[in-house]
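Dear colleagues,

For the upcoming journal club I promised to circulate an example of a predicted protein-ligand complex. I picked one with adenosine-5'-triphosphate because it came up in last month's discussion. The inputs are reproduced below in full, followed by the predicted structure.
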Amino acid sequence: MKDAVCASGICKGFNTIFRGKKEVLKDINLLIDGEEIFGILGPNGSGKTTLLSIFSTLIYPDSGELTILGIDARRNTHEVRKLINISTGKPNFPWSLTVKENLRHSGMLYGLHGRELDRAVDWSMESFELYQYQDTRFENLSTGVKQRLSLAKAMLNGPKLLFLDEPTTGLDPQMAQRTRALVKRIHRDMGVSVVMTTHYMPEAEELCGMIAFLKEGRIIAQDTPARLKRNLKIGERMRIRYSGNIDCDALRSIPGLISAEISKGRADLVVDKNEATFSRVMRTFQSAEILELELEEPDLEDVFIELAG
Ligand SMILES: Nc1ncnc2c1ncn2[C@@H]1O[C@H](COP(=O)(O)OP(=O)(O)OP(=O)(O)O)[C@@H](O)[C@H]1O
């Protein structure tokens, strides 16, 4: 199977009125095989949307090579566009057209006609629970339904690769969860490769098999969520409430202790997830009485703060 995205040395800058050229993407190298959902994470303004716009051929990079599904995206843009689509979390459709009219309109732009167009529109309304809204104008839809319409539109041309830009932006938790379930279905049941941006860690952790962190236009880390947690030494949190005295120096010098905040009766520790470290920590509390012990797994939010800081 051909890789979904192969990018090397991608750079992009925008001309600004007062500050000259602003470099937004700097030497981006990425290989995305498309087997698992791939997440591009980063703080606001880090370049996620610009990168996705380049991958989906909406804008050209200033330099670098880009192959999408084995096709040179800079030379054969038209061929690439037949195989991909993009959906954004802030969808914009002709506001006075109904859901059905919008889907038919988009379908026609993708070159569908007659029965083929009818079938594609019916299938997308069925798959994305849009039938009950088919005669509702875009301007009267809720944010969640607009998002579903955007996903439905993006599936009309039967893409092999789908780019999603912040697909759950502005949705309440329940609606966001429904949208994530749809994204999983698109990937798993409809066999579409998915590359998505998000700045919401739990979303990346739930959906993505691989994550690239973008900061100020550069990829600063790329790995599976599990390995990112392990390799970045983001440790387990131990919160201990105790009475009595402990040897604080001995506690602070334990190898594997990443950080320690110790005050009277309370120790907040971050430790390597490692048996030896745990038992050494517990031994320093032998002379005291442990009143409460709380353990908390690190999550990607910690990784993100560490990298984005
Ligand atoms: N057409 C443009 N002209 C000038 N600057 C631009 C243009 N598009 C994007 N930028 C700038 O490039 C930088 C990256 O923007 P981009 O939208 O790609 O970031 P992002 O990570 O998607 O941010 P967000 O999460 O806020 O959407 C920002 O500083 C933005 O102001």
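Two points we might discuss: The chain has eleven helices and 14 strands. The mean pLDDT is 90.

See you all on Thursday,
B. R.
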